[in-house]
Design brief:
The chain has 167 residues and is α+β, with helices and mostly antiparallel strands. 28% of the residues lie in helices and 32% in strands. It has a 6-stranded mixed beta sheet. A 4-stranded antiparallel beta sheet has the order 1-2-3-4. The longest helix has 11 residues, at 69-79. The chain is elongated and about 55 Å long.
Length: 167
Amino acid sequence: MLRRTYDRLGCFEYFEGNDKCILIKEQSKTKVREVYLTSKSAGEIALSICPTHAGIMIGRLGKRLVPSLQGAEIIYQLGRKYPFITVNEMGEKLVLYGRDVFGQSITDASPNIKASQNLVIINSRQETLAIGLAKVPSQHIFKEGSVTVINVLDIGYYLRFQGKELS
């Protein structure tokens, strides 16, 4: 399932060919599994000592892969097939404060975004700001006066909720 997903997103070769190892950690309380990216040598050590965490968590695997913020950034930067929107400076500030995205803040978007699809929110410098959820398909994503993308998790979250459990 992971290979098919990462292949479709255009980044599996990076994981396979650059001394990378993908580890999947089973959660005992839930059916959700965490997916980690490490170097091959760190992966071998992790398999032998079974640490709580190893490497960068790049997503959670349930019925489908839901990328973490770091995973979405890697997928977007390497694969360029992951849906995205680019926001202007005002939109960037609002996203970093945890706010949703209005259509007038979007300057560019992937052409085939579907409603209820996860996407990456980036700024004009191609920096990943957040994971969003499209409320509308791409042809309506620029609609002024309407929230068209919901902010699911942004990089400002870690600063706003330092020391609190991530929900």
